[in-house]
User: Fold this.
Amino acid sequence: MLDKAAEETLNVKNREELIKTFRDIFVEKDFSCLRKSVQKELKAIFNDDNKPVSLQPKITLGMGAKVLSKAYGDSVLNMLADQILLIDDKSTMQRAFEVVKNRLIEEH
Assistant:
């Protein structure tokens, strides 16, 4: 289902802008394009507490990684996108975020 949504998301006029926006979320940690409530939840991932990761950051980051995987034809990003949706703890989400970031910097 996420694959289909990502493919449909890329069928927009501003495709390159969308790709840049998702890329900036990971590479620059720039959440400014998102709603304030989503920004707050994404920033909370990087807090040092034991609260579980809520659904909104999982969907936002998972969809972002999925769209980028489709745009770049990158099977590693595709796998990471699927895994992001399953992550519940912040330390694992932080590591997944960094892996996506590093993959984008090194490969794309």
Notes: The mean pLDDT is 90. Residues 2-107 form one domain. The helical segments are 2-9, 15-27, 36-44, 55-72, 75-84, 90-107.
